[in-house]
UniProtKB/TrEMBL annotation:
Name assigned to this protein: GH10 domain-containing protein
SUPFAM superfamilies per UniProt: (Trans)glycosidases, Galactose-binding domain-like
Family: Belongs to the glycosyl hydrolase 10 (cellulase F) family.
InterPro entries to which the protein is assigned, alphabetical: CenC_carb-bd (IPR003305), Galactose-bd-like_sf (IPR008979), GH (IPR017853), GH10 (IPR044846), GH10_dom (IPR001000)
Region Disordered: start-end pairs: 10-32
Domain of life assignment: Eukaryota
Entry keyword Repeat: yes
Transmembrane segments: none
GO molecular function: endo-1,4-beta-xylanase activity
GO BP terms: xylan catabolic process
Keywords, ordered alphabetically: Carbohydrate metabolism, Hydrolase, Polysaccharide degradation, Repeat, Xylan degradation
Amino acid sequence: MRKFTRCCFTGGASSTHRKQNRPQPQKSRETMENAQMNNAYDNFEIVNLSSLSSSMATNIVTNHDFSSGLHSWHPNGCDGFVVSADSECRKGVSEKSVGNYAVVTNRKECWQGLEQDITSRVSPGFTYSVSASVGVSGPLQGCSDVLATLKLENRDSAASYFFIGKTSVSKDKWEKLEGTFSLSTMPDRVVFYLEGPSPGVDLLIESVVVISSSPSELEGTSTKCVSAGDDNIIVNPKFDDGLNNWSGRGCKIVLHDSMADGKVVPQSGKVFAAATERTQSWNGIQQEITGRVQRKLAYEVSAVVRIFGNNITSADVRTTLWVQTPDLREQYIGIANLQATDKDWVQLQGKFLLNGSPSKVVLYIEGPPAGTDILVNSLVVKHAEKIPPSPPPSIENPAFGVNVISNSDLSDGTNGWFPLGNCTLSVGTGSPHILPPMARDSLGPHSPLSGRCVLVTKRTQTWMGPAQMITDKLKLFLTYQVSAWVRIGSGATGPQNVNVALGVDNQWVNGGQAEINDDRWHEIGGSFRIEKQPSKVMVYVQGPSPGVDLMVAGLQIFPVNREARFRHLRNETDKIRKRDVILKFSGGDSSSLLGTFVKVKQTQNSFPFGTCISRTNIDNEDFVDFLVKNFNWAVFGNELKWYWTEPQQGKLNYKDADEMLDLCKRYNIETRGHCIFWEVQGTVQSWIQALNKNDLTTAVQNRLTGLLTRYKGKFRHYDVNNEMLHGSFYQDHLGKDIRAYMFKTANQLDPSALLFVNDYHIEDGCDTRSSPEKYIEHVLDLQEQGAPVGGVGIQGHIDSPVGPIVSSSLDKLGILGLPIWFTELDVSSINEYVRGDDLEVMLREAFAHPAVEGVMLWGFWELFMSRESSHLVNAEGEVNEAGKRYLRLKQEWQTKAHGHVDENAEFSFRGFHGTYSVEIDTVSKKISKTFVVEKGDSPLVVSIAL
């Protein structure tokens, strides 16, 4: 009696959606493969094939035994041939074949194999049973998985992929691959194919049988639908089978039913594992999952963990993926981390995705200091569920511009205010009568302020100041602008930081800061947004040293009307990013040209829109496709940083950067060099920190010479010494002159590159260390020392952006006369629509400002961003609402025009700067021409001879 494993699915139930409106090459698919361990099929029903009606048991695969060569079969991106039964060139298996078999070779990817179109031979409502005899040949140690997969295509949507079954195959024998599938609806095209071994390994196929049965003939059997992710791919996840399939990573692992005299017991089950005798933080417990995870699928990881011993009560515990590529390159992918304790079990959760086809994958848990045991009760890895996006927030009566602060003008004394702490509040006078500039830009014409202020005296702690409860006055997902005048009294020693803060359920939220070192009134501007319902929200003003009086006037917190701001920005954009163009035709009788149809299309906007990429990203063809279509600049996230190119002294690694540069050159993508040095000490390699002054000077010179000579002329920009407003490692160790020296030497080694300063929180008003004023002073100081600063980098890691605040910072920095770039822009919100709103604020502000000459996003693909909830494309390739907003803006900023030649033999339009094509239909011929619209105040005249 022949049996097979039943793994039925209903067509369409678990489809993965790809990008729309383009043909889907086979290699851009996301196969919905279970990737579970071999014993994960136990829950499925076993069906006897011999019980099926013989009248229904016709094989729907043609040329199933390859007796007609590869007729009806097609290699998928690779090569194939058939070995005949009497051939002496048999390969791959010692077990004799009963007939011909196909060899699929020159496989560069695991998804490459052999396929057949079975569209005309399958119907909805039937269950199809699959049985194939398969083998492998080539550079293989141990076993490799072979998979049967179905591809469903529809004209109006992306292809879907479904896992049918798999088997583990060694080089010595043929194995049976069995499974079933059924379709609930009929797609336009159905393709069956076999795939799966590692790249470089040949796939051998002896026969394929796919037979059908009606639903009634399977009555009483299970038709449970399964898809990738229904099963844990971790073998022995709760240690029910002892420590089988587990090992220690540089340490010992043991099994316990309890520890500490019964105080530590499993959260679930009977036992837990402990990684013990750990001598390094990376020591831990691991399991190899090679062959059970598939590229371009997102996986969720959940582990129940705690720590024990070494008098450590709390420590960082991490899940990490170690990946080895076929060319033996190693990658470490951080999945999740949290603070675990010795008191309770906690759940460690995260996600990961593999871009390329790995030769080996190991998942492990690490992190605590040496000597501390890591306890693991369970570990689950499943295909990540697709979470539908949150709906756009519906906000009734947003009351744009209405202040939520009560008695802001103090016309009713201090009613509505209360002192935070045992300070004293009273009403003072002499404050400004005008709104602070950033609020005025948002609110427009406004009544004068009262001239009264809250005077705070008898302050004994820095956090003491005036406060109000505003819980019931705030709406979720609205962006609020914060504005106030602040001043401090006498007695301060040194600059004082004054902060408008919010306590949201006892969590501190920054509403804006100002540094004050004189007796003038200063503007505070900031913003915030609340995305989860709080039980209590308090706003308060704090900051000066104890004993220093504080004065606050005209405190305003109001929701901003972004649409009104956008209307203003569209007008500004039209002024600075467009130019009048006159197409002047010649070569024919002007009267005959009158009325000739002209069609103008912009093919490329010259404004730089770029993104951060990583080496692993470029192994994902879907990532590269989105990159090439939607960005014209790129910056490397880590691969050019010193800690990446020289992690140990003298051991240089430029391979990653070289490969990324090659990709950018291939697609005409310009590149920024980020970064030559990084001033923040925590980012500096330990071997550099251990050098004495002379050796450190030599190392700095070698870094400059090595990098700038190798890549001379290849990077258009360099961030020379990253985040000098927030760090001072090199300056502290080598003196103040080292910063200007870095600029001057870099310029000598590569004069073609613009050299940038680069820092964060310049644009949002929430960090006094990097206010626009401080940044200007910093640049002028470098220039006075002879540093050839060529550009100002604003990173742009921003929350709840407010246009006038961002624009104010740009206006201030504009006095330097240097090009300004947003170099690392990202925004974050759990709601994709709100994230899109934030992104639109930043892109419109940048595009409408004359001093801004480029915008770089700090990534766009989920799981490859420095901040959560900031991606534009979901992990498996679906463009989300924020990404759609970006694409719509790009479309808005591309000109199309059409019309007829006028009586002066001209056609005029106003268009964005960039490259254009024009088509002219005359009576006798069609003419095409390209031209470029560059910046300029006067109309551009383009002469076209017909």
